[in-house]
Specification:
The chain is mainly alpha-helical. It contains 13 helices and 5 strands. The strands form 2 sheets. It has a 3-stranded parallel β-sheet. A two-stranded parallel sheet has the order 4-5. Strand 4, helix 8 and strand 5 form a beta-alpha-beta unit. The protein is globular and about 75 Å long. The model has no long low-confidence stretch (mean pLDDT 96). The structure holds tryptophanyl-5'AMP. Tryptophanyl-5'AMP (TYM) binds next to strand 1, helix 1 and helix 7.
């Protein structure tokens, strides 16, 4: 995993809570592979974040390995990037503590994801759920990352990371780079297929709302055929057509066609034809990911080798940063 000094650094992470959704894929992961050519990239399966909601330990372990295999199947090349499991690098949690001491209670209270998640998990509003964005800031700042590729739903957390970095710099002297978000122009918020005014999410109770990237072709087509749309019949992007807008965004993301091209392609045809075409295009697009995943998940020794080397490289970069941070805040140097 060669890291070059003259390239900017990218960090991003994804939670290992079951298979990735089409939203994770279009909004984030599929952009990660191409960035490897021009940037030093660090990608992590963020298992520390996952335990902010109750997890079955055996399932979490399995999901984490699967998520790691899926990351590689989506084009992250461990020879080009650092790809590791977050809990294998203790520096994230250590830096998180220091940053927590430069983060205000009020700032964390304003995070919309905290409000949503604490309403959803009302019987387990734990401190980790509240301080989650501080850990996310530590993930990014531990590498002094320049860019963070994310979907729109993580923008507020990134803004907080920038504020935490700026406050630290103000208190202790310029040190952290202020990270920029890298949000795709189309597909930064893929919506539910059953309620297109809501984000597509793996925690949706309705299985038809969400396409998983390991779903087989028939399942994908069935979910798209059942997608909720409006009562018109013309395939075009517009106000009040959130279902069709979402399907057009997805179709555009997997075929590379513009909205105008899509409208011409389906002129004179109905929504039924369009939904079928979207389902087929998505299934065909994801086929190589499914094939690569099947091979990778069967080779646990290879995966272990990759994530071990990944965390070793991640530790090296972040230990240097953390040593400087400890010095800046006034801890006694170890040697
Ligand atoms: P997570 O695991 O929820 O999602 C991973 C990435 O997928 C994007 N995403 C979507 N994009 C478009 N449409 C959707 N429906 C959709 N759903 C999810 C997310 O925006 C995200 O980019 N807190 C983060 C993980 C994290 C992280 C980090 C990210 C931890 N540390 C540091 C960047 C940098 C999260 O829970 O993402």
């Amino acid at each position: 995993m060669p890291q070059s000094n003259d390239k900017k650094l990218i960090f991003s992470g994804i939670q290992p809570t079951g298979t990735f959704t089409l939203g994770n894929y279009i909004g984030a992961i599929r952009n990660w592979g191409p960035l490897q050519e021009d940037y030093n990239c660090v990608y992590s399966i963020v298992d520390l974040h996952a335990i902010t909601v109750r997890q079955d330990p055996a399932k979490l372990r399995q999901n984490t390995l699967q998520a790691y295999a899926l990351l590689l199947a989506c084009g992250i090349d461990p020879e080009k990037s650092i790809a590791f499991i977050q809990s294998h690098n203790v520096n994230h949690a250590e830096l998180s503590w220091v940053l927590a001491c430069t983060t205000q209670f009020g700032e964390l209270s304003r995070m919309t994801q905290f409000k949503d998640k604490s309403a959803k998990h009302a019987n387990d509003v734990n401190a980790g759920l509240f301080t989650y964005p501080v850990l996310m800031a530590a993930d990014i700042l531990a590498y002094n990352a320049d860019l963070v590729p994310i979907g729109v739903d993580q923008k507020q957390h990134l803004e907080l990371a920038r504020n935490i970095a700026a406050r630290f710099n103000q208190r202790y002297g310029e040190f952290f780079t202020l990270p920029e978000p890298y949000i795709p122009k189309t597909g930064a918020k893929i919506m539910s297929l059953q309620d297109p005014d809501k984000k597509m999410s793996k925690s949706d109770d309705n299985p038809n709302a969400c396409v998983l990237i390991l779903d087989d072709k028939d399942t994908i087509i069935r979910k798209f055929k059942r997608a909720v749309t409006d009562s018109e019949s013309v395939v075009c992007y517009g106000e009040g057509k959130s279902g069709i807008n979402n399907l057009m965004t997805i179709y555009s993301a997997v075929t590379g066609k513009s909205f105008d091209e899509i409208t011409s392609e389906f002129a004179g045809k109905g929504y039924g034809d369009f939904k079928l075409a979207v389902g087929e295009a998505v299934a065909d697009h994801l086929e190589p990911v499914r094939t690569a995943y099947a091979k990778l998940i069967a080779d646990k020794a290879y995966l272990k080798d990759c994530y071990t080397k990944g965390s070793e490289s991640a530790m090296k970069i972040t230990r240097k940063v953390l040593t400087k941070v400890y010095h800046k805040v006034g801890f006694v140097d170890q040697r």
